[in-house]
Amino acid sequence: MRQAQTLRQLASGMKVSAGVALAFTALRADEAEAQEALPTIDIGASPTQTIDVDASSASANTLRSSTGIDRLPGPVQSIPQSITVIPQTVIHEQQATTVSQILQYVPGVTVATGEGGGGITGDQFRIRGFDASGDVYVDGLRDFGSYIRDSFATESIAVLKGPSSQTFGNGTTGGAIALESKKAHLGNEYSFEAIGGSGPYGRAVLDVNRQIDETTAARIVAMGNKQDIVDRDHVYSNRWGVLGSLGFGLGSEHSVIVNYFHQHSSARPDFGVPIVSNGTAVGEPVTEYGVPRSNFFGRQSDHDVMDADVASVLYKGEFGNWLTITNNARFGNYTRNLRMTPVKCSQGNFPITAASTCAVDVLAGNLDTAYEIWPFAGTKQTSYGGENVTTAILRFDTGGFRHQLIAGVDVYVQRASTDFYAPSGPEPAGTLLTPIYQNSPGFSVVVSAGRGAATRSWDVGPFISDRIWITPQISVLGGVRWDHYHVQGVTAGTPVRTTTEFASPKASLIWEPTSQQTYYFSFARSFTPRGNNITSLSSPLGLSQFGTLANLQPESDDTLEIGGKWSLLDDRLGATAALFRVDKDNATYTDPTSGLKSTTDDKVRVQGIEAGLTGNVTDAWNVQASYTYLDGKIRSSSINAFNPAPTDGNRMPYVSRHGASLWTSYDVAPLIRGLPEARNLPGRLLVGGGLNYRSDYYVDNANRLRIPAVTTVDAMISYDFDRLHFAVNVTNLTNQLAYNSAFGSGYATPVSGRAVTATAGVKF
Question: What is the DSSP secondary-structure string of 662-686?
Answer without folding.
Answer: EEEEEE-HHHHHT-TTSPP--SEEE
